[in-house]
Amino acid sequence: MNRYLFKVGTQTTSFLLRSNNQVFRSFSTEKKSILETIDQQVKGNPLVLYMKGTPSAPQCGFSNTVVRILEAEGVGKYESHNVLENDELRDGIKKYGEWPTIPQVYIKGELVGGADIMLNLYKSGELSKMLQDAGIIKN
């Protein structure tokens, strides 16, 4: 029976494979973890939306609400990710933000929230100020 001798989810450049009492060393280039990928996306873009569907075709009412709010605020381009295309991303974004629901909006690397929070911020005018302060929209 073959067993890998490394902890799943940890970064490694090599691992050991034990087979019939012999130990073999095998080298691998492990891909980045999903949390590292999300971290780069969130920190590398002024506004990131993790949603079900795409901005042009949202696949849930909450995602649609967030897209329409961003349109109403005059947000042009922003990065979005369809979590329905990637189960690892869907689970990863919930862990990354420590937030159980989707959509999730990040502005300047910080989790703002989902549809309900975005709607409240929009209605109060706070969202407009946040977007202006982040340089995403102009006065």
UniProtKB/TrEMBL annotation:
One of the record's GO molecular function terms: metal ion binding
Domain Glutaredoxin: 48-112
Pfam families: Glutaredoxin
Keyword entries, A-Z: 2Fe-2S, Iron, Iron-sulfur, Metal-binding, Redox-active center
Iron-sulfur recorded as keyword: yes
SUPFAM superfamilies the record matches: Thioredoxin-like
InterPro entries per the UniProt record, alphabetical: Glutaredoxin, GRX_PICOT-like, Monothiol_GRX-rel, Thioredoxin-like_sf
Annotated PROSITE patterns: GLUTAREDOXIN_2
NCBIfam families: Grx4 family monothiol glutaredoxin (TIGR00365)
Name by which UniProt lists this protein: Glutaredoxin domain-containing protein
Organism from which the protein derives: Dictyostelium purpureum (Slime mold)
